[in-house]
Specification:
Elements (H helix, E strand, L loop, with lengths): L1 E4 L8 E7 L19 H8 L8 H9 L22 H15 L5 E3 L10 H10 L9 E4 L16 H6 L4 E8 L6 E3 L16 E2 H14 L5 E7 L4 H12 L18 H6 L4 E6 L10 E2 L7 E2 L3 E2 L3 E2 L2 E2 L6 E3 L15 H6 L4 E4 L4 H5 L14 E5 L2 E7 L5 E7 L2 E9 L4 H9 L11 H8 L7 E7 L1
Parallel strand pairs: 4-5, 4-16, 5-8, 8-9, 9-10, 11-15, 15-16, 19-21
Antiparallel strand pairs: 1-2, 2-3, 5-6, 6-7, 12-13, 13-14, 17-18, 17-21, 19-20
Helix pairs in contact: 6-7
């Protein structure tokens, strides 16, 4: 497989195109009479990765393998035979078939670069979300957050850079190292793909350590590690988590009735900073690791429609979470134009593939503008973002009530908001700001055309 990269302006995307791909029929398997691999050179040629070279320990492991007695399992037998060494050959066959089937021409890959810092809008929205119940969060996640190396990388920024940019849900794909219980993290389809794939395998413990280091530097932030788990051995998955995070873990078994109404601030106040959740068929005893479905669904974006349906099903009040995969131009990716559509439908999290500053900006709802002289937040019909205004300006107030957002009849300076909200709508009402993109749209909906109003936030 030969790839070429065109020289472009640094801000332009890197375009990778295939000049030639060796064609292997997708369903072809070598017949039983075919000569097995015998020589090291034959094995090396078959196992060569088209991306970065495998780590030294992987190369040593490959050289030690004798593939000649291995059979290639039928695809339908893969799930029931995950622990058999023969799956090495099966995983290799899958990688070869993928190379044969996929059209790689004009695949756009986001150029690497410095991740954006968390600016005023990002910082404001993270602070607002601290006091939003888990059941109402609209998390920012990264699809295959670890996968920032190789040809088919899902991200261009490191885990720490993603967290700095506001990501709070990190997806990790866990696989076993061949013939051992060691866990690796990689983008693969089979139990042992980390040994063979061109996507850049990483050490599980190193990733956990990187997350722990960032968490220690930001102890006021709640993180979710989401595991796509292909490892059956519970100890090999959970022990590194326990050894790394210790008492910082919010264990599934610690939850009490009504935990859905807990806020990140309340959880952090108890000394907990990390939730580990998983999805898929391989699950453990549920004492440490949460079931991802308890937080939200894990749904491909391709089934979503802007009318708030998923494959024709109305989203309603269910907790829907979505992820996209931009590899090979898969359907309905998360874009600058589509991200607001998901958030307007109250998607509980979006795990974005190939994060960019532009994609991050599409999620923001707070400050459209700000200055030291204009510190108070105004909501307008003309924009879904907040505008900064002098706090002495006279406007009406958007108030939060048990019956939804309401617009006051009286006007005043920003500082009059708490008094006017309770005076007009009762003691259980408050001059509170919207705390998510979805809430901000609800608040904006109460404004008549050409109306501006105060919201309960100032710098």
């Amino acid at each position: 497989m030969v790839f070429s990269a065109s020289c472009q302006h640094p801000s332009a995307p890197l375009v990778v195109s295939s000049l030639g791909v060796g064609r292997v029929p997708a369903q072809t398997r070598p017949p039983s009479s075919e000569k097995p691999l015998q020589t090291d050179s034959e094995k090396a040629a078959l196992l060569q990765s088209p991306a970065d070279e495998l780590a030294a320990e992987n190369q040593a492991e490959l050289r030690s393998l004798d593939l000649s007695p291995l059979e290639i399992l039928p695809l339908e037998d893969q799930a029931s035979n995950q622990d058999r060494p023969a799956n090495l050959a099966q995983a290799l066959a899958q990688v070869k078939a993928l190379s044969a089937q996929v059209e790689l021409e004009s695949v756009s890959v986001q150029a690497s670069g410095v991740a954006p810092s968390c600016g005023l809008d990002c910082q404001t929205e993270l602070a607002l979300a601290q006091h939003l119940p888990l059941s109402q969060q609209q998390w920012l996640g990264a699809h295959n957050a670890y996968n920032s190396k190789g040809i088919f990388k899902n991200q261009s920024w490191t885990l720490s850079q993603q967290l700095d940019a506001g990501v709070r849900v990190l997806e990790l794909d866990l696989h076993r190292r061949l013939l051992s219980s060691k866990v690796r993290v990689c983008h693969g389809a089979g139990a042992y793909d980390c040994l063979l794939n061109p996507f850049g395998a990483r050490d599980y413990q190193q990733i956990l350590t990187e997350v722990k280091t960032w968490s220690d530097q930001h102890p006021d932030q709640l993180l979710i590690l989401e595991l796509e788990n292909h490892v059956k051995n519970q100890k090999s998955v959970e022990e590194p988590i326990l050894n790394t995070f210790h008492n910082l873990l919010y264990r599934a078994a610690e939850r009490k009735a009504g935990w859905q109404q807990e806020t990140p601030a309340q959880i952090i106040a108890r000394g907990k900073r990390v939730i580990v959740a998983d999805f898929g068929e391989l699950r453990f005893d549920g004492q440490l690791i949460w079931d991802q479905k308890e937080l939200s669904s894990n749904t491909p974006t391709k089934g979503f429609s802007a009318d708030c349906t998923v494959k024709g099903q109305l989203m309603g009040t269910a907790a829907w979470g979505f992820y996209d995969d931009k590899t090979f131009k898969k359907a309905n990716p998360l874009t600058v134009a589509s991200i607001p559509q998901f958030l307007r439908c109250d998607a509980r999290y979006l795990k974005i593939d190939r994060l960019t500053p532009e994609l991050l900006a599409a999620r923001h709802f707070s400050w459209e503008s700000a200055s030291p002289e204009q510190a108070c937040a105004q909501l307008s019909q003309k924009s879904e973002r907040w505008q900064a205004q002098r706090c002495e300006k006279v406007m009406r107030f958007v108030c939060q009530t048990p019956r939804g957002w309401k617009l006051s009849m009286h006007s005043g300076f920003w500082a009059s908001g708490p008094q006017i909200c309770t005076q007009e709508f009762g003691e259980d009402s408050a001059f509170e700001p919207p705390r998510s993109y979805f809430q901000n749209l609800q608040a904006q909906a109460v404004l008549p055309v050409e109306t501006n109003a105060w919201v309960g936030y100032r710098q």
